[in-house]
Amino acid sequence: MTEHFFAPCPRGLEQVLADELDALGIKDRAVTPGGVAFSGPFETIYTVNLHSRIASRVLWRVAQAPYKVEKDLYTLAHATAWEKYFPPTHTLRVDVVATRSPLKSLKFATLTIKDGLCDRFRERDGVRPSIAKLGADARVFAYLNETQATLYLDTSGEALFKRGYRVAEVEAPIRENLAAGILRLIGWNPEIPLYDPMCGSGTFLIEAAQIALGIPAGSNRRFGFYKFKQFDAPAWQRLRDIARQAAPQSLQVHGSDISQEALRAALANFTAGGVDEVIRIRSGDLLNMPAPAPGGIMVCNPPYGERLSDQETMAAFYPRLGDTLKKHYAGWSCHFISADRGMEKGLRLRSTRKIPLMNGDLDCRLYEFKVIAGSNRE
Length: 378
Fold this sequence. Notes:
Blueprint: E1 3-8, H1 14-23, E2 29-32, E3 35-40, H2 44-51, E4 59-66, H3 70-79, E5 92-98, H4 106-125, E6 138-144, E7 148-154, H5 176-185, E8 194-196, H6 203-213, H7 233-241, E9 253-257, H8 260-272, E10 279-283, E11 297-300, H9 308-328, E12 333-338, H10 343-347, E13 353-359, E14 362-370
Helix pairs in contact: 3-4, 5-6
C-alpha cells in the first residue's frame, strides 16, 4: 500500500534532500519550499529515518481536507482513525504550522485539533491520551495553508539532526543535517582532502567521516515509529543489519581549532560517532599553520560578531584570513557559512558562489572562494 510522507529540511537544501532520496531509491518525490514530499510503502520510513543526513524529520500523512474555520479542524481530527496508529494510553503532543491561514490563532487551532483527536479516543475507549510537551509517545503535526489542512504523524521522534554523537559541544554549533547538506553542496567526496580549520565540536568532520565509512546517520538513536502499531521489528532489524558499508582505504579528513576546549569537545564527539580513528586533528591558529594537504576543500563555520566588540574583532580578522588563504591555500576550494554580510568584503576576495541557507533562525550565506595565490582581489 502506498503511503504519503513529507520530509522537512533546512531552507536551501530542498534539492539536495531530493537527490539524497533519489539515491535511497525513492523516485516518487516532489520538491516544495521547506522540504520534499514523497510516497512509498510504510517501510520507506525505516530507510529515510536511518539513512537521511539532510531531512529534519519524516512525517507520515494520515489525513487531509479543506477547511475554513476551526470547527472544520475538529471534524477532520475527530474523523481520523488514530486508533489504527497508536493506543489511547500513549502520551500526545500536537504542533501546528501555517502559511497564509485565514485563522486568527494557531494556538486555538492546536487546541481544536487536540480536542478532536482526544474526543475520538474518549468516545471509543473511555480514555483519552495524556498531553506531554516533552518526550510524547505520539506527535501530531498539522500544516495549514490558505484552504487545506493536512495532519501528519511524526515518525522520527527527536529531530533527525540529533544523531546521538554530540556528547560535548561549544558555542554556536552548526546543526548536523545542515553540515551534511553543505558537504553535498560543495561537491566533497571521500577522495578529496577535507579540512575544517575552526572545527569547534567537530560536526563537519564527523558527518564527512561517517559518510565515508558508511555509518548511517541514525545508527546511534531511537525513532518515533518504534511506538506505532505498524512497526515491524524484524524488518527494521534486517535493514539495520545490512546498512553499514565498507570503508574506503584513503580517507583524509582534517580539523584544527585554536581553542583547547573545542578540541576536547571534538575528540569526545569523534569517539561517540565512531570516527575517532580516521580524523586527523591538531591544535593551532589557522593564520599560523600550513595547509594539511597540497589541495582539497576547506569548510567551516567561522565566528561572526553580534556585539559591536565582536564585529570590530572580525573586521580585523578577515583581511588576515584572506591573506592566509592566498599564501597557504592556493589551489584549494574554501567554503564559509556565515550570517555576516561583511565577510566577503573583509576577506578582500571575490566569491565564486554564494548560496542562501538558514542555520536555525540565522539567515546565512555559504561563500565559495576558489583560491589562487595573489589574485581574486576585488
